[in-house]
Amino acid sequence: MQILINEEINIRIDKYLASKTDFSRETIEKMINNDYILVNGNKIKNSYKVKENDLITIKDGFIKTTNVVAKQMPLNIVYEDDYLLIIDKPSGLVVHPGNGNYDNTLVNGLMYYTKNLSNIGEEFRPGIVHRLDKDTSGLMLVAKENKTHELLANDFKNKRIYREYTALLDGVFPQEKATIDAPIGRSRDAFYKMAVVPDGKKAITHLTVLKKYSHNTLVKLVLETGRTHQIRVHLSYIGYPIHNDNIYNNKKCDEFHQFLHSSHLKFIHPITKETLEFTSKLPKEFQDYLDMLDKSN
């Protein structure tokens, strides 16, 4: 694989490649140290900052190893068979190791719970077909073997998996329904953020109002695409950010963070061909806040 830098940037190569490939920064570091990644044909260090006209070469054949430690933790498993799991993830739980957290993630708990997880993806993400942000709660799919992982990934790509989210927005949304069609890419202002940018990847979010409060709106959101931070970016972009979002909302938030919940999941089982459908109740903090809004209304 080769990547030609055609823009003026000044970012460490490990950070840059982590945003452009499926490799984690940890794997990229190992690849650089073993000469699997070159810049303009030359060896480089992890601290090398890529610049315009650099040609990055990523060699094939790197053997991934994992140092992820299995850790016992409570898992809310709503469905399980020989091929997959449906997890109801709490807010605050990181899905996979990275960024200094290698022991307290959903993956650590899954590895303790079962030895049967797919391994065709990134080494720090066994079984993870799609992910939820740390502070997004609710339903997510986990693959227990590789064929299932491949088929589910293809179903996600071809929009055959129905995902519905519930969110509380700041502000009273004027319409009853809306579709947000705005491309998303890496923010020019902060590397850890995403943003609506002209050269971003296509991103579509469908919004339906469930209830309006004095200063907030409860909505249902259906994803047509699955970009990083898509819902949070789109809603902030149109001026109705998710309540308590500490990255995309300028208002002060508490430790629960964003009121965004993966509430409904429906798909055809890739192996048995059975239609599976699941719903998840809102977290207590989310529901308690709605109850408070109902009383104040």
CATH superfamily of the largest domain: Pseudouridine synthase
- The radius of gyration over CA amounts to 20 Å
Helix percent reads 10-25%
Order of helices and strands: EEHHEEEEEHEHEEEEEEHEEH
The tally of strands reads 16
- The helix/strand class is alpha+beta
CATH architectural label of the largest domain: 2-Layer Sandwich
* Strand residue percentage: 25-35%
Largest sheet: 9 strands, mixed
CATH C-level category of the largest domain: Alpha Beta
CATH topology description of the largest domain:
Pseudouridine synthase
Can you characterise this structure?
By secondary structure, the chain is of the alpha+beta class. Helices cover 20% and strands 28% of the residues. It has three domains: 2-58, RNA-binding S4 domain (Structural Genomics Hypothetical 15.5 Kd Protein In mrcA-pckA Intergenic Region, Chain A, Roll); 68-158, Pseudouridine synthase, CATH 3.30.2350; 164-261 and 289-296, 2-Layer Sandwich (Pseudouridine synthase), CATH 3.30.2350. Strands 6, 7, 8, 9, 10, 13, 14, 15 and 16 form a nine-stranded mixed β-sheet that branches. A hairpin with a 3-residue loop joins β6 and β7. α1 crosses α2.
Concise description?
The protein has 297 residues and is α+β, with helices and mostly antiparallel strands.
Present the secondary structure layout.
Layout: E1 2-4, E2 11-12, H1 13-20, H2 25-33, E3 37-39, E4 49-50, E5 55-58, E6 77-80, E7 84-89, H3 106-113, E8 137-143, H4 146-157, E9 162-170, E10 177-181, E11 184-186, E12 194-196, E13 204-212, E14 216-223, H5 230-237, E15 260-268, E16 275-279, H6 284-296
